[in-house]
Amino acid sequence: MERNEWMRREIAGWQAEGLLEEGLCQRLRERYPIGQEKDGATWGMLLFGGLGSLMIGLGIIALFAANWEQLNRPARTLVSLLPLALCGTTAVVATWKNDRGQPFWEGLGVLWMVSLVASVSLILQTYQVGGRWSQFFLSLSLLSLPVVWVSRSVFAQCLWMLYPLLWYFALEAERGAGGRGWVALKGAFLLALSLPAFLAFIRGKYSRFLEQAGYFLMGFLYLVTTSLLLCHLLPRHLTWEFPWKISLCWLVSAAIWLAGRRWGFRHWEGLGRVSALVVALAVPFLEDGALLMVPLAALFAAVLIAQGIRKLRLRHLNEGALLACWLAVVKFFASEMDFSLKGILFLAMGICLVVVNVSFVRYRRRRMGHGEKA
């Protein structure tokens, strides 16, 4: 049974019982149009379409590499640009035919991005063009923006969001490739260039899987990149210290979470929570000088567990329990404790997770049962 068809029947039943007004029913029908799931993009189509496009791109690169030494420079340049030209031509033809099928554009967007990286890399290698890695990633960011704008591919935009992040890390490794203010300004400019595509994604209509994947992947990459750029507003001796970067990531995550709670922005509350959770996973690997971060991460795990119990949400409970177990496992496994004791600890944590899940499910059923009786 299709989800939207089932929802339509439920809406009709609610309207017949007088539970919903006509205007609200009409808005709900527009939100769940019949045929969207049949003609739209399912997660399997999108996932395997993107994976297939990636494999096609890598296969083309492998074929070129096998015969690369037999080609002269003009032939190498032509071969390097050929996949890029084919992707552009395909996009023009699809636009002319008004084909906006999301699986097609998702696959084309990924293939287009891979072809662009391959083309630029092969041309630079052919003509022995030197330079820094930061310049390479900055060039890729600018050259691939039209791909994101034209295809409106969620996966392509997620891949594009890696470029500002890689550019930042390359610039950080080079140390002194530009002033601190100049780094923050260029990074903000790059993120601003991607905003039109992100806003188009927000306004667009996508399948549930693609919408959630886009919000969380792009939102997390925006959050991390913004936090790293904010580090350059700190005093110079703090700019390169990892604990401060994690602290800023947590601060930005908290701001997104609070904004989602206060104004009800779609997915913002979940994005802030999950982003803070992902960032907290790096805390156990910090040096001993950042021991304060471990108790803060443990406190965050306790807050997630308490929120899961209070709101009867198993997902929040599991997120907090997994974070607490992760902190303990990494710290204990990095210690000089006997390996058999480490194994016992790991086994005990697994049993605790199972017991907590079973107990919580029973507790939630009892609470919901009492609520229905009341």
The number of helical segments is 16
Overall average residue pLDDT: 76
List the helices and strands in order: HHHHHHHHHHHHHHHH
End-to-end C-alpha gap: 33 Å
Rg over CA atoms: 25 Å
**Shape type:** globular
Strand content: under 5%
Number of strands: 0
Major beta-sheet overview: none
Low-confidence stretches: 35-41
Residues in helices, as a percent range: over 70%
Task: Give your account of this protein's structure.
By secondary structure, the chain is an all-alpha fold. It has helices spanning about 5-15, 20-30, 35-40, 45-65, 75-95, 100-125, 135-145, 145-150, 155-175, 180-205, 210-230, 240-265, 270-280, 295-310, 315-335, 340-374. Helix 14 runs antiparallel to helix 15. The longest helix has about 35 residues, at about 340-374. The protein is globular and about 75 Å long.
